[in-house]
Each structure stands twice: as C-alpha cells, then as structure tokens.
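B., you asked whether I could sanity-check this one before it goes into the benchmark set. Here's the sequence:
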Amino acid sequence: MRAAGGASRSTQQCHGHAKVLAASAARRAVAAPRVRCQRVGSPSALQAVKRPDYVPSRIDDPNYVRIFDTTLRDGEQSPGATLTSKEKLDIAKQLAKLGVDIIEAGFPVASPDDFEAVRAIAMEVGNDVQADGYVPVICGLSRTKHQDLERAWDAVRHAKRPRVHTFIATSEIHMKYKLRMTRDQVIENAVSAVRHLKKLGCNDIEFSPEDAGRSDPEFLYQILGEVIKAGATTLNIPDTTGWNLPHEFGGLIAAIKKNTPGADSVIISTHCQNDLGLASANSLAGAQAGARQIECTINGIGERAGNASLEEVVMAIALRGCVLGRARACACAGAGGACLCALPGAREGRGRDAAAAGVPQQQAHA
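And here's what the prediction gave me:
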C-alpha cells in the first residue's frame, strides 16, 4: 500500500516505524540466543526433530506445523507502511535465516515494483538451498482473475519451490455487495483459477475463501471440495475481519476437516486477523483442531489491527504446546536445529531463533 504524495508527517513517521520494526525484528530474531524447550516433567531437553521433506499437499510428519510468513504482503498493508524492493529482499533474507517454511513475498499484480520485488526474492532467496536441504517456498498472492494469476506465477516461478496463493470471498455480505456474484459464480471462479494455475505449470496452489470466519460452513465445504478436485494443495481458512473467538475458529477448522471431500489429501491453514486481539489464540486453536500451516507476521503487523504474531505463535507452540495439546514430543533448538513442539502433536517449523522475534491496497483475503 503506497502512502499518498501529500501524506502528513505522522503518517510518514508511522510508515518509517513499521518499516524499521519489521526489518529490525527479523534481524534480532536471527542473531538472538536459542531457547531450550523441555518436555513437561523431564529434566533434560529432547533432540531436535528433522524438518520433513517438502511436499505441497502433505507433511510426512503429522505433527509438524508449517510457518507461513506474510510480513512482506499483509504486513506491508499496515496503515501508512510501504517497503521498497531492496527492503523486501533484505527482510526476505532474514526470514530465510529464521527458517520459516513459506515466505509470501507480495502481491505481484499490485504494482511493477511489487512484481520485481517478488521476482527478485524468488530468484535469490528462493534458490539459496542450505546444506540441510532447506529453502523457503516463495509465494505470491493473486485474485482469481487469469491475468493476475499469470502475473503472480511469472514472479514466483523462478524459485526452487514456487507457490501461488489465490482467493475469492465466500461470505454472503462479500458475495452480495462486493463481488455481486452468486454462489455458483464464486465456485466457478475459484475452480477456474486453480485449473488455470495448473495449466501454467504451478503445482503448489493455495486457495483462500475470503471471510471464511463469517461464511456459511456448508458453502465452505462445497467450494473447498471443488478446488481440491481442481488441484489445490493448501486450503487457507481466513478470519478476515478478526470476528471469531478461539472455540469458534477451532470448531470451524475441525468441521472443515471432517466435512470437506478430500480434506485429508491437502494441508489446512489458518490466517487470523487481530481486530479483537485474538489472532494468535485463534491460530493456535486452529492448530489444535488439525491445521498444519499457520500464517503470521513479524510482530503481528498487518492490515488494520494486524495478524497473528510469528513470535507469539512459535513460542506458544515451543513452550506450551506440550501442555496445550497433550503433545507427544517436544524438541528444542541446537546448532542448525529446530525449535519444535506439538499441540495435538503440532510442531512448529524450523524457526530456530524465533524466540527473540518479539523484541496495493487490493481486495486481499486478509
């Protein structure tokens, strides 16, 4: 989101603060000492658990939770915030050092500069394979319009592991007043988008039903089942307006897993906004209910009140996951290791230093 040319001094200060906040927090997270995590009741820390091999639609370790960082996309939608291409590349490098599984690098169709930023991140960060085989997935956000999808794919396709994340609204209020589409038209658009991405050569496709937290669950089961058949590999469930309470959001994730045809063959993800201060709590409730990807940002920055905070989510899983979800295992960071823990067995991704991370305006799904 670009600030207007006549922005006030306070807006410019806000912009500068958000920019420094994201960059400095990411740097501190990488440089900070590692935190030991112990099994409750055990005097010694467990061994670090190896990150599972990356397969878009499944995780061989059923207890592993992927960390999807959207600081460079949703985080940039903080009021008054904007990042240059170089700044986005610098932050992406720090996120890779942090070890996040997926980096949502931007919204390529939003502007030529954002396209170039996403492409640069895909080409550089998305091809920097570490000795242990780790390299982050590089993701670009897109509406369901074919020209948007093509632009997003052209930006991320240079990465070793490219992903396109597409979305369309599914709540009655959004479909009626924003999209002016019927349910059948929304399903048709969603399916067409996923199929088009497959034709382009994209095999890692994330789909979000915008405003899922206020959508009719029966309609969600229907549209999600259709995009799975079309080729989607991750289903992201956004609480777009930050409306849900933890028990409601956890219940929605559980119901989607139970009632959506094919849900057991894809990854279920959460994306929670913080309007009621519950983004991190809702994300953890989603993981307890079976979600195996959590979308978050450094310091929880993002549109309106922000997003789930990466450092809060990671540390809640690392330090309290064994209690929260009757975890079967809890491993901690060693040299080049991972800070891992389970909720109902949910382990956070590599995030080995995330303990210290806490120190163009479009119709986006979040």
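One thing to flag: Residues 278 and 314 are 15 Å apart (CA to CA). Otherwise nothing jumped out at me.
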